[in-house]
Amino acid sequence: ADRVPACLAPFSYQATATGSTPIRWSLEDPPDEAMRIDETTGRLDWTPSAAGNFTVTVVAVNRVGRDDLSLLIEVNGENVPRFTAPGPDTHPAVGEEFRYTVPVTGCPPILCSLEEAPSAMTIEPSTCTIVWTPGEEDLGQEHLVMVKATNDFGSAELRFTLTVASPPRITSDPVTVACADQPYTYQAEAEGSTPITWSLRTGPPGMTISAELGTLTWQPVVEDVGSHPVEIEAANEFGTDTQGFSLAVRLPPTITSTPPAEPIVAEDRFTYQGVADGSPPLTWSLVEGPSGAVVNPATGLVTWQTTAEDAGTFDFVLRVENACGRDEQAFTVTVQPIGNEIRITNVSPSMGLTSGGLPIVLSGRNFKAGPGLSVTIDNIEASDVTFVSATEIRATTPPHFGKIGLFDVMVRYSDGTSAVLENGFRYFYEWCDLDISGQSLSIDSGSEAAIVETADLDRNGDPDLVVTDQAKRLLWSAVNRGDGGFTAPVSVAVTTNGSEAPLHMAVADFDGDLFPDVAVARPLDDAVSLLFGRGDGRFDPFETLSVGGTGNDDPVDLAAADLDGNGSIDLTVVNRASETVSILLNDGTGTFEEIPQLPLPRGSVPRRIAAGDLDGDGTNDLLVTLGGSDALAIGLGNGDGTFRSGGTVNVGDFPNGVALADFNKDGNLDAVVANEGTSRQDDSLTILLGSGDGTFGTVFDVPAGGNEPHNVAVGDRDGDTNLDIVVSFPEENAFFTFYNLAGDGTFGTIFRNIILLSPVFGVTLGDYDGDNDLDVATTYRDDRFTVWFVTDQGGFCN
Question: Given 103, 134, 163, which residue is the final one in a domain?
Fold first, then answer.
């Protein structure tokens, strides 16, 4: 039956039919005699006398047949509209369409309207259906809605309120660093309809969260140092939200070094290298100290150039701090006044060849022109002795055949007065043969040991070695036994691609467990292999991290540094084919996310990369050697992992290896670039002295003295506190040391330390035998690598 609404009022219904005319209409079983139908038009008229449901059959007849229709007439006893429910029992949600049909009875037709409602709400008049899509601005308040229903007999109004459903959204930034033996607290916060209930889904043992307040607490201990995954959940009646992060547990710093106790003389330079245990990054500062005293905030080196007026006792307070706390060390420095005695304070250069003939400058005080002025080194008289002033004497070193090492420098006069600078000058042979002390470590036959790096793989304080193997596609590691002897190397695969030839790597603690890990560039795979250290000198199987995205990026080198200031070590990868730098940010667990790349100049052929703070803003910057344009590209860090271009600097011909260090001790990072050149005459090192603002104020070339300088390592090879440069020369079967004799980054004389029978490719430095002299480890692109031990002369000669 067809359902037809009606009310206690005159009612009509128009029946229709198809077929041959004429059609005659009639009713069967009408509810009462008042119901009539026009036999020619089919119009039904009725005025109900009571409410209820009434059935009637409408019959249509023509000369060929009949049809009938059953009608169910639902008579409402109320003519005036009436709402039958107080309002919706559901809640609208932000950004979602909310529809609600308001139930209303009464004599139709009934039309609905909104008398009061939120601005974006509408209503369909005939169906009384409300439509609304709430916005963010509708959260946090009750919205009054008034609906009016009207028909021919009257009207009715319905008032109700709607609260916009707000599932929780966690808005707080997690505290991602905890400190061993210190309470950890993170107050999580969330938007959304209350009440919100908090729970801990993942966390280390002993961590709890307040269900009502969202306060996450934990008491980490020293054994918890490392990274821990944490996930919390906020829930209300409308939904849930989760927040996951990596929590790094770190150690507060403790200063372990002892300041020098010996007094100095006014006008002398005071230096003290602060050393501290604790999780990096460590930041050093001077809380108290005399005017002019400074400390390098990154290295902890305290320097103070005293003046003639500085006689007395001076108080220092040295501070080191990290995210977990601070430590302070108080000490005093006694500065004695300048007397009338002659004093030598410095010899520059401080080393030279045993053949002599090197011009030197003696600095000091109370020098005089005579009588009988002479200068001796190891009691051998120097030539060309010239008095310049009370603070300067010039001379030329005498020959010193057969003896190398440190020797006393003396100024003396015929009246018996004299001054001695103990161990003031170092003699070297020009080069040494193979009669040296070293240990060669063999690996699998057919291997091709390429790049070698130094790292303390087992955290026992002794430097160990890791080596990439291009031919076997392996990473080799050798653990130092503590006396310079190494265990047999062990290997782990770097890739399964048989065509790949992994070469360059970066070594750092990527997962926060304080053990070194390794990242290896894989050019053919457009990928980086991550190998996490186990803490015993071995590594877990490699994990693949894709880089680039062009399908032909060709990653060739990489550098490890904290780029976004979260304390975790990130990665930058040089892509040779796409001429870009991929930036991979670390969440602290060794999980990396690549953000938009840093583009490099077109046609520049990028080769190598180094990272460090060039502009002193506490954020790491980048240097990339550009072999195609004979330049060095500068990328200045923004502190969030992104970089802006710092321009380019011209260097030598076909630059390759690059390293950062403070060569002139002004507190600013400098750079050295090895230029392979297209001919021997073009081979050089470019020295770039940093200005501390992301630029290089002084740039000059030093002749390489050999063919195709390649890889670069930096360290104090001769114990004079000046950083020297060691460079591998595959074409010369040798590595050279460039000595920073004056400590100003000028690098005068080249010393060819070792001539070998195989091409020296990789080079790295470390004190492998614990005698406080830097040793050198080298590779030859064959099945071995060698550690060469330094004698106390600073060279490699017996």
Answer: 163
